[in-house]
Amino acid sequence: MNEKDLVELWNDKRRQIISAQMPSVIALGVITVVAMMGYFDGDYTYAQSFAALFLVTVGSLSVLNQLAVIREAQTIVKDLQALQNPSALAKNIASSGSYLIYTRALMVVFSLALLLALVLLIL
Question: pTM here?
Fold first, then answer.
């Protein structure tokens, strides 16, 4: 692949990461509105169980999708690093490999922390 193709692919992966977050954001918004309307008031109900399982499912699928995109983006970074005479943009993208590693690690940590918080709230 040439530099232009790799940069376009990089930009596509960035869009995919952003798009993968949208289902979780929408799900959180819907659950927040439902909670504000009082549907979760009172004792623990099936609605709360459904909401918790729904959030865990949507969130898990979103995180898995983002992790896959990050893995693919890391390959693009390696390919850009191997180019001869890359442009300044390609050099900048190629140097962002460590940010992908940090992003992946933080996603896992935050996901586990949110899951733990959800479990503690339910119990």
Answer: 0.78
